[in-house]
Amino acid sequence: MNLKLPYLFLLCFITFSNASAQYTEMINTNRPGGSQGAFSVGTNVLQFESGISYGKEKHNLLKTETNGLAIDYSIRYGFWKERLEVSLMGEFQSNKVTDNRSSSAREYSLSNFKSNTLGAKYLVYDPYRKRDLEGPNLYSWKANHKNQWKDLIPAISIYAGANFDFADNPFTPEAEAKISPKLVLSTQNNFIGGWVFVTNIIVDRVTTDFPTYGYIVTLTHATNRYFSVFLENQGLKSDFYSDQLVRGGAAALVNGNLQVDLSLTYSFKDTPSKFYARAGMAYRFDMHNKDEFLEDKAIKKEKKEEKAKNKKQERKDELNLEDNGEQ
Q: How is the chain split into domains, by residue range?
């Protein structure tokens, strides 16, 4: 299937506060979309994200109609470094299928885990930290409230995980139990006006006979401090399953640690066609007690040069004092 972007704008990473830091005063979650943002939850933060989906699928070639129920979940924990988080993500699917290929319809049920992935994400590059340290432009209000070319430089993170697939699973490509790798490159741009743009490049199950390659692009807009809407486009390419999905929905903060959301998913193909509605929530246990000062190498270099410059000036002043004393 051709993985073109039929619709450019879509979304996923919901955030209601300044996402340029790892830890935020309000919950920072990947829901309700399917992509991963570049930033972690913050050190000593344990976060649960889950949702329940119900929808219909129709396969024109196989002449089947399916009522599907799915439960997705994610457990995220930040430790050691602000840039690092570990996570367990997965989805359980239960389908009731009606086969219409004969004169009398046949019904049967399928249920199993579509995915179970244990992994870690690390923030490789954070362009916003240096900007925060530089502070606002004290001479131009306009410069601080408009998008600039440097805003196109995204934060970048790398995710590496392992899929744990069960044997005789109708939702996974391998007949036997299998452990396979998953890699995700995530980028995130935070634009003025409450806009967040996230992209994911995904390489999945490459050690199996059915590797999957894909992307997700997500556009989120926070209309105010407590409410956000999103659009998202996802493409999947595999000999086992390929698809083009569009999602859209909204999320709202109940309090600083609790978020609820609603979303819809629609597919562009008819083998099968899909339409799902999903409701979910995210909750965090905030045990964060220390802000880590994230510095880029460039900032460290600047500080080192400034320190050397100061020492040089101090030495120069000492020499001047000595010369004056001799005179």
A: 45-294, 297-327
Q: By the 8 A CB rule, do 31 and 11 touch?
A: no
CB 46 within 8 A of CB 77: yes
Q: Which residues contact 91 (CB under 8 A, 6 or more apart)?
A: 70, 71, 72, 73, 113, 114, 115
Q: 3-state class of 172 per DSSP?
A: coil
User: How far does Cα 180 stand from its chain's mean position?
Assistant: 21
Q: How sure is the predictor about 147, in pLDDT bands with cuts at 50, 70 and 90?
A: low
**Could you report the per-residue pLDDT of 299-308, keeping only the tens digit for each?**
555 666 677 6
Q: Using one digit for the tens of pLDDT, what is the confidence trace for 177-236?
A: 999 999 999 999 999 888 999 999 999 999 999 999 999 999 999 999 899 999 999 999
SS3 129: helix
Phi and psi at residue 215, to the nearest 5°: -145, 160
CA distance 211 to 207: 7
In 3D, which of 122, 126, 253, 145 has the Cα closest to residue 191? 145
Nearest to 10 by CA among 197, 218, 199, 188: 218
DSSP letter assigned to residue 130: H
- Please provide the CATH number assigned to the domain covering 45-294: 2.40.160.40
Q: Which residues of 298-317 are buried (b: 16+ CB within 10 A; e: fewer)?
A: eeeeeeeeeeeeeeeeeeee
Cβ contact 273:66 at 8 Å? no
Q: What whole-number distance in Å separates Cα of residue 296 and Cα of residue 49?
A: 30
Beta bridge partner(s), residue 123: 157
Collapse the DSSP code of 141 into the 3-class scheme (helix H, G, I; strand E, B; otherwise coil) and give the result.
Answer: helix
**For the stretch 25-44, what's the b/e string if a residue is b when 16 or more beta carbons lie within 10 angstroms of its beta carbon?**
ebbbbbbbbbbbbbbbbbbb
Give the contacts of 108 (CB within 8 A, at least 6 positions apart).
Answer: 96, 97, 99
At residue 24, the pLDDT reads 80
